Predict the structure.
Amino acid sequence: MTEQQLENLLQDMSLEEKIGQLLQLTGDFFAGEGLATGPMEQMQLSEEQVKLTGSILSTVGAKRLRSVQDSFQKSHPHHIPLLFMADVINGYRTVFPIPIAQGCAFSPELAKEMARISAKESARAGIHVTFSPMVDLVRDPRWGRVLESTGEDPYLNGLYAKAMVEGYQGKDFGEQDRVCACIKHFAAYGAPTGGREYNQVELSERSLYEEYLPAYQEGIQAGAGMVMTSFNTLGRIPCTGNAELMQGLLREKWGFDGVLISDWAAIRELIEHSIAEDEAQAAYLASKAGVDIDMVTNIYSNHLAKLVREKQVPEAWVDASVRRILTLKNKLGLFENPYKDADEVYDTMDEPEPAHRTFAREAIPETVVLLKNDDFLPLNKKKTKACSQVAFIGPYMEEQGVCGAWSLFYDPEENITLAKALAECDLEIAAPVAKGCSTLAPGQRLLGFQKPVVNEETMEQQAKYLEEAVRLAKESQKVILALGECNQMSGEGAARTEITIPEHQMELFRQVHAVNENVAVICFSGRPLDLREISAKAKAVLQVWFPGSEAGHGIMDVIFGDTSPSGRLAMSFPYNVGQVPVYYRELHTGRRATAQENRFCSRYIDAPNEPLYCFGYGLDYTTYAYEQLQLSKQQIKPQEELTVSVKVTNTGTRAGKEVVQLYLRDVTGSVARPVRQLVAFEKVALKAGETKQVSFTITYDMLKFYDSKMQYVAEPGKFEVYAGGDSRASLMEAFTLLSK
Ligand code: GLC
């Protein structure tokens, strides 16, 4: 449709029709089922209002959505097609590692390809918009949704936001097998007080701009067609009713002209937040903030028309929202083809595309992080004197729930468990399997994402599993122990105050370790955990997060050395929960703790300051050495650049991939500056013994920050450059930025 035709359509629509475009319902109003990812209100909506709906969410399936679209358009006065939206967070039918694991790959291009595949599979299932990427910067592992983020660093998150938008949308999301991306949750939802879901966010303006906003902007500059508001308050104003944030910053300053959708029921929740006296005021505040779509409440439907007729809401606000929604539908080509890519044959084929599964398997070693390895991994498939039997024990050997809490559309039967993958390995060594326990304790019940999860086993059954596991461990040479959070212990609504592996699983670990010290732990989780005890006792620790459909294959490929782990932490692992929030890009303070004994410095008396494992850290099956860090200049003028080069050598006996990281420290500024910040990295493949020189360009823009007047500038002075394999990099050179 041309812009003029769109404008004519808009002018021809009644006010009720226009307001209908702002309504988003779950699919069960049309397709007999839908998925509630939040509280479902009894929607007091007339049949007439339902017939004017603009979009539905969480219903999928080519056949179902084609049928819904057909019947809906027939009854709509202008036959305006529905938008179909869903949470395709880390894959649709082929499920990839959760986003925090993708962040650990330090490979935005990997995430881009995952997004492209996810777009194809979900587009063929009839989806037009995915509520992804989640771009919230996270530094608090108590929050259950860190699993959806790509970590604690603004620079890394920005690269991923851009890459994922490009992967989902391509150059034009109206093209085949592309979907519109939705940047969420705007803004700063990743910093809820206490790590508690839906809680307030208290940030200084400078921290907000310096750390939390950049990645959203990267995603928007990459052309994301949609942004979702966040549940939290910012400056004590709920984002969904925050006109300064949404109109002032997002639309006017950043120039976002796409669709702004509320999060689930977030417009109604302005009343709960106590900034709206009633539904009418909630409608007014959200419309004033430029929120275009009311997700699953009837606030806009039941109050906007009256507010417009009483001149409390300019009809121009409604028209602006409707125009943006119709423009999105037009960009998707829905007026010409309301089904877009819905393809029943593809959508229901017996197997997912083999190439997608292959990619999912090959991605896993890039995302897992080897935290410890006392010459234990990889195992040798061949029988050797020293290795007669390896026991594979733990609840995650057979567990199919390895895709993370936000994987909603896959078939668990299509997941490759560790046990399934093990059975396919052509081992000469015996590799018996024992469960040891379940992910939940006996009788434990957890409010799951879609329904409660409960472990109905009895204590006696649990005792039998444990006894069998300990016996097996005793008679084996080595033990691989697959443990972790239940996959429903992270994700939305799953904040934890203790970030440990469940105690009954730790009991399994202790009893196995007591009879056999040769234990390696494979850790499944949706967040960094307190792994102190396991790290102290196990010979090796491999953090696998939730690896998705090909979990078993990808992990076994690493365990048996068919490929090396090359993940590096995108989020710090705390020493304990008392350290939280702990992250590398912190300020110096006036009394930084040093090695010297000193009571009066920024420290704890009962724990170290340093996390157990820091940002950027990860081991490989080989080792690396850095030398000859060189700068092309010792001083630069404004707008000038300089080149940094460093030599990295694979000093081990196996090929590997090293993430060469470059950090910058602005030694003095008009405001306190971080002790260091990641400004560049390169994942480099190196053969055993090979040396490569890696070069980076330090640009003038990299030196900028929000100064004491909140101006985004670079200030003259000394800068330090660090290069190495994690955020503790010690190889350093310095340069000076001249004032002119
Ligand atoms: C949820 C989440 C949001 C998701 C939306 C739709 O409450 O906060 O990330 O996209 O509702 O399911």
